[in-house]
Amino acid sequence: MIDFKQILSVSLILFSVIDILGSIPIIINLRKKAGHIQSEKATLAAGLLMILFLLGGKSILGLFGIGVEDFAIAGALIIFALGAEMILGIEIFKPDPDASAGASIVPIAFPLIAGAGTLTTILTLKAEFAQVNIAIGIVLNLIFVYAVLKSTTWLERKLGKTGLDVLRRIFGIILLSIAVKIFKSNAFPIEIV
């Protein structure tokens, strides 16, 4: 049953976890390297991942013998690499000239939009909210994500080179912190005795 309060709660939770606004410097940086970000493909790929996880995330991971914690740690390592790239000015994710959609899918669709944090959050939300309300929350977030991806050129012009450089380094540190937090909480879970 559709419940607007649940939809609002789910949308806000996913908005904070996806943090597409915080990813703007990363997306601009990737667009410069790849030449073009295919917003539609990135949004659709992320949406497909989120819906798949909503419908059967634990089962999908179970097929590969992977736990939610393992998945989160893998996502944390990718996020850590992105953060290190932003702060140190090194190139870890090299664009593939033969794959024009490559930068749109990895690392934008996964792990930036539909990363380990987002996918594990979706699994967690299922315990508290109706599946239809989670699905609507996902779609609302994807609309916003698409709008941000489409406006990165405009945002880049408004921020300028210096603004982007400062933002890139600040969000690089934030990404490193998020990666360490995800890694710590999943690699060394606190055991209650």
Short description:
With 193 residues, the protein is mainly α. The protein has one domain.
Description of the molecule:
By secondary structure, the protein is mostly helical. The protein has one domain (4-187). Helix content is 78%, strand content 0%. It has helices at 4-18, 24-34, 39-63, 68-88, 102-113, 116-125, 131-150, 152-187. α1 (4-18) packs antiparallel against α6, α3 packs across α5 (102-113) and α3 (39-63) runs antiparallel to α7. The longest helix has 36 residues, at 152-187. The mean pLDDT is 83.
What is the helix fraction of residues, given as a range?
Answer: over 70%
Structural class: mainly alpha
SSE ordering: HHHHHHHH
For the sheet with most strands, the description reads:
none
Amino-to-carboxy terminus distance: 39 Å
Total separate domains: 1
Tally of DSSP helical segments = 8
Subcellular location: Cell membrane
Keywords: Cell membrane, Membrane, Transmembrane, Transmembrane helix
Pfam family, one: MarC
Main location: membrane
